[in-house]
Amino acid sequence: MEERSLRITGADKTFFNKITSTLTKILIPTKIGINGMLISIKRNNVIKAFENYTIDDGNYDKEEMEKKYDFAYEAYLGALDKYVMDSIYKKVKNNTATDFEKNALSKYYEVTSLKESEYIEYKYRKQKYLIELDYEGIKVNGKEKLLERYHKFYLSKMDSLYKSILKNYSIKVADNTNSYDSTKEWIYTKIFYTLEEYIQNILSLKIETNYDESIKDIVSEYEKYESYAVGKLDTKDNIEKNMVLLGISRKLFTHSLPLIVAEQCYEKLLKDARILVQDTKMAAKRERAYSMLINLMEDYNVKLLSTKVYWDSPKLRDEYKKFWSRYQEISKLKETDFIEYIKQKEILFMKDDMKKLQKGKTDYSKILTYYKRKLVDYGAMKQIRNSYKSVGKYIKVKEVA
Length: 401
Known about the structure:
Elements: H1 2-54, H2 62-93, H3 99-112, H4 119-141, H5 144-174, H6 185-209, H7 219-226, H8 235-252, H9 259-279, H10 283-304, H11 314-331, H12 333-336, H13 338-359, H14 365-377, E1 382-384, E2 389-390, E3 393-394, E4 398-400
Antiparallel strand pairs: 1-4, 2-3
Helix pairs in contact: 1-2, 2-3, 3-4, 4-5, 5-6, 6-8, 7-8, 8-9, 8-10, 9-10, 11-13, 13-14
């Protein structure tokens, strides 16, 4: 009897599991409907609160409007989070989810995995994820009036979230207490990834919708970035792309990515570019890498160092002033003798870089030799054979600037 009872219980369990699974599949559309209505209400509330908060006509208590906006925003995020767990999660679990929903849940877990190790980044990235998820839904539904109203809230909030994410990275780059990750390679990677994400998703939308008149100044730089957004990129292309991203960041994220951090990002790119020049074997590819390095040096000096106010020492500041004065003199040649302008500019940058590399601890002997050969070719350095002949070969060659 006991054995029979166990068998019956087991059979009942399987039966009820099947019923539960079937009911869940039936009820999922209802849950989506309920969550959809809830999201719609909360979304309308947050848009209205945002519009009231951003009105500046003196008829509203700004502090009170900000509190209402923050409250509506929290409720909106809560509804979106509930939608992911109540609807998308269960649809994926019951194998009734679309590819979009599967991808959405995968991204959700990717974001929540940051919670234990990187809570601040998790906090901002989760908000960004939820808002992006709803934005994609609004675009699919094609409600033009809603989309037009939502754009202003969406772009404003995304600006704020991206600035917070980059500021968090900036603090980590500036933090010298973590000896275990002194190279901070992973943070630089995240900075460049976040800048590219912003330009792809937010700046492109601002340009498309004429959101802000001030962004017209960076449209040409955005178009440069677009040329790197298609096809497979090699190391040189990636360095150039990141150079463009940093250039744009100097106009969009001057506070979130302050000069001291942007300087370290440029130095990281310069290091990568020098290694590429000295490690490239094919002459044509090496020349292209060298040309890219010169452009990067110019970008670094013009867009960053020329705006630098605080220097580590008066000596460094004075050295840069001399360099900058010479650069401006050379720039005058651009209109009258372009070839001479290019030549003199390269000489200036190579000599300046040689001084820096000779003081450092990293072995840059290959690129220093490459610079010297270039300078000899340009007539900016003399090659003097101060040597003796042995078995038909010169034993020592000394190059003098």
